[in-house]
Design a protein that fits this description.
429 residues; N-utilizing Substance Protein B Homolog, Chain A; Rossmann fold; eight-stranded mixed β-sheet; 17 helices; 45% helix; globular
Length: 429
């Protein structure tokens, strides 16, 4: 049956991710190898969309099924999830979609469930494809934006409703792709002559891919690397100068390291560390591709490895990642309890990194989350214990960014179009 192969691959990939908690991008890449290009695009669209909308589609299944969602066999549940998503958000003819997903469950050796799948999907259609929103505000936002209610509650406790709503709405859209031009090997004219990009006015050397632009996932002839605006803004906050010594203590896969080196005109030294040697190799290979010779990459624990003194230290710590849910949808389903121990680890890394900052030097603490317990709480604890460090507003050399700069800056997508991110710049007396 035409159209069955990509849907079968999609549901099998979703089952694999749910069962093994594997990374969705790796599981999807493996599934796409056996598909034609058009089938791969369809499989990707349904898989990624379903993963982003799990709570929403589960609410629709619950409204039309005769049993709780968790009582369905996993193959049947994943077929229903993908089917509801396709009916709700894609333009496939409805009867064809229902028939394909009913056939799909048979191919998964769940023939006895074919009638159930057919009935639930058709019941959803008869009901006008309505999403059943609870009356309570946080529960309704959870279903509408497919974010766990406990995360919605925490976001609302720390931010106004307008900020949270804009953040969650952005997480439902296709994320923009940004690149950082390498000024050491490419002019703006050369870059724009080869790729469908447009400059980001507020951020030097930053470009956004236009709709329909060809893939920009890899460096090409060293002329650029793909990097979200938040990471570029983090490097601008560090403001490293040519000839200085810089530490990047949690560097892999190396995007910020590369931007810092380019800002320094490849003059000086950058010592880049990561805990795992296989990730350190990514830094080395990326630096080589971009022609950056000042970077020394090595494996090392950010909390313990002795490091050289530096003029500037970037401490971009491991975090819950809630700021990048538009790019990694499965992150939103982490329980808050699962990430509760991170602030202590983050503080230990910050403490260790601070020892390497020279007098008068700069320390930048950053995360790709928007939760205060990993951001302001860690930075405030550190500053209280270390009066020799004082917070400093970032981007002093960039007047166009002054309205966003605070002693502790949380970036949301609705500001400059970046991922969610936190930056605290500190200077040692």
């Amino acid at each position: 049956m035409t159209g069955l192969a990509p849907r079968l691959a999609c549901v099998q990939t979703l089952m694999r991710v749910v069962q093994s908690q594997s990374y969705s991008n790796l599981a999807l890449d493996a599934a796409l190898r056996s598909l034609e290009e058009s089938d791969a695009r369809l499989c990707t669209a349904i898989f990624q969309g379903t993963l982003e909308r799990l709570i929403t589609v589960d609410a629709c299944i619950a409204a039309h099924g005769k049993r709780p969602v968790e009582k369905f066999d996993l193959p049947v549940l994943c077929v229903l999830r993908c089917g509801i998503y396709e009916l709700l958000y894609m333009h496939t003819p409805e009867s064809a979609a229902v028939n394909l997903w009913t056939e799909c469950v048979k191919k998964l050796r769940k023939t006895s469930a074919a009638g159930t799948v057919n009935a639930i999907l058709r019941g959803f259609l008869r009901g006008g494809k309505q999403i059943p929103l609870p009356k309570a505000e946080t529960a309704a936002m959870s279903v509408q934006y497919s974010v766990p209610e406990e995360l919605v509650q925490m976001l609302l406790a720390e931010n106004d409703r307008e900020t949270v709503t804009a953040f969650l709405e952005d997480a439902q859209r296709v994320p923009p792709v940004y690149v950082r031009r390498n000024p050491l090997s490419c002019t703006e004219e050369e870059l724009l002559g080869q790729y469908a990009l447009e400059p980001v006015p507020e951020i030097p050397l930053a470009y956004r891919a236009k709709a329909g632009a060809r893939s920009l996932t890899k460096q090409t002839a060293g002329s650029f690397h793909v990097q979200d605006l938040a990471s570029q803004l983090c490097c601008l906050a560090l403001d490293a100068q040519p000839g200085e010594t810089v530490l990047d203590v949690c560097a892999a896969p190396g995007g910020k390291t590369f931007t810092i080196a380019e800002m320094m005109q490849n003059k000086g030294r950058i010592f880049a560390y990561d805990l795992h040697e296989n990730r350190v190799k990514l830094i080395r290979s990326g630096a080589k591709a971009l022609g950056l010779t000042m970077i020394s990459a090595a494996a090392g624990d950010a909390r313990g490895t002795e490091k050289p003194l530096a003029d500037r230290v970037l401490c971009d710590v491991p975090c819950s990642g809630y700021g990048v849910i538009r790019r990694k949808p499965e992150i939103r389903y982490k329980s808050l309890a699962e990430t509760a121990g991170l602030p202590e680890i983050q503080y230990e890394i910050l403490e260790a990194a601070a020892k390497a900052v020279k007098p008068g030097g700069v320390l930048v603490y950053s995360t790709c989350t928007v939760l205060k317990r990993e951001n302001e709480a860690v930075a405030e604890r550190f500053l209280a214990a270390h009066p020799e460090f004082q917070p400093e507003k970032p981007w002093q050399a960039y007047p166009q960014l002054h309205e966003y700069a605070k002693d502790m800056t949380t970036l949301f997508p609705q500001m400059l179009g970046s991922d969610g991110f936190f930056i605290c710049k500190m200077r040692r007396a």
